What does this fold into?
Amino acid sequence: MTHISTHRVRRVAGTVSTDDIIPARYKHMHTDPGRLAPHLFEAYLPGFVESVRPGDAIVSDSVFGIGSSREQAVSTLLANGISLVIAPRFGRILFRNCWNLALPAIEADTGDLSEGMTISVDLERGEIRSEGDVIAGFPKPPLFLLEMIASGGLLNRVKPSPSGA
Amino acid sequence: MKRRLKSGTPLAEQIIADHRDHEDGPVEPGRIVTATPDRIYVQDGNAPTVARLYEQYGFSTVFDPERVSFVFDHSVLVANVDMADRMKDADAFAARLGVDVRARGQGISHVIAAEAEWFTPGALVLGSDSHTCVGGAFGALGLGMGASDIVAAMVTGTTWLRVPETVELRITGTPTRAARSRDVLLTLLRERGQEPFLYRSVEFTGAWARDLSSDASAGLASLGVELGAKCVFVPDAEGTIPTGTAQGVSRIEFDISGLQPTVALPHLPGNTVPLDEAAGTPISYVFLGSCTNSRLEDIAEAAAVVRGHRVRQGTQFVVTPGSNDIYRAAMRAGHIDTLLEAGAVVTPAGCGACVGTQGPLPARGENVLSTMNRNFRGRMGNPEANIYLSSPLVAAVTALCGAVPGVEDLP
It folds into this structure.
């Protein structure tokens, strides 16, 4: 299985909370990610959502996704076509939620990734390339997480327990 | 289900090892293993999404209805028709599954988790809310997770866990009289940042942590997620929750001698400054509530401050007890009467105004001072409000003054 994908870099700056990604009140109103999608970064980066293209990668310079457990932060990114997140560090629950929903969350130094740059990312090799050159590296994710991506997310791997009545 | 925690091994590793679903290798930091929780609880902000995922993936059962609870705490007084519809979805879903239900007004999931003894020493508890880390005040490994994780655990009775590294956080010294446990934690966050704690299990040690009351300890543990930790453990005087004796664990020392009460400035909990640096900031809305500070000790402290005084004209003081049991205990002790006499608004138990899913919403440009755990922009439902954070002591004095007090103004 290969895990090479191409993305356009979209930079975000500073510590980003899940409240910044999607305010809580919307997730209490809607469960359909399509209804949440227009509110991505609504207060944090007004107007950003209109410029997102499918395949964009969110690239953070700081801790990304601290705070609440809301998986809707990840489903809202996915509903906008975001297909990769790169940050030096992640909020732990957001990190889980990303992989659980088959959105790779890569821990890497992002200093050399600039806004609008096209990158290709090889999960197996732990390499980020721009115009053929490796511009950043990261430890290869555990097999368990790579398999999660291959199966399209955690719930595709779940079979009800035989003890469940 | 009481279990014994030993000294000598990191607590998170002990609890994970004790809950293995099957042998999938050693429990060592960094490894991913499968574990079976003692309890799973779902709060109402995520229950509708859990219901949708069940439908989408064709699931219909839970591994054990006795070990799954739905708590309706975030949207107690629903003032939005879409939210009302979602709550109906969640009510119907919980009834269909036959799980334990804690209805609106019973309290915050993490407060109920202690009262109902889901949090006991050695227990593994999953909650669909980041502040499930409160469990560490009771010796439980409480892990906040998102909806898919919770669904997977509800269906299979298992979850995947990456075994955390453990760090000992040794607190030395004694803070000043008016500093509370949250002041210590947010000062630590300000000074050290999240980096030393991110993803880790943090075991507090030292006399200060050991001697905290249960309420103060729960408030401290709730802030573990703001520190970036996976979980925190706070020792107790009885030694039920031993910490700090594990071999090969790195240690961070933090001296709190002379530590002052604090206020976190907008819009991050780590923007914490000593109280005097924020003194004089006008505040027109004070909120006492949330899984950090809404317990009996917090309400008692606020009542003692306002007794015989009036909330400042032009300032609203909203108090939301953490649970129905706390509300009634506060009522029996006369605290509710004292607060009402002073002009406070006391709401039904739950998460209250913390997360903007119900009122009161702050006005545009309004300065709010709150005892909750985080002040991210828009947290209370209005991105144009400025949210400050403090202890209940500072909050109650602020309600009387209409401005952040200085240390000298505290009783």
User: Anything to note?
Assistant: The domain at 22-162 of chain B is CATH 3.30.499.10 (Aconitase; domain 3). Residues 81-97 of chain B form the longest helix (17 residues). The longest strand of chain B covers residues 166-172.
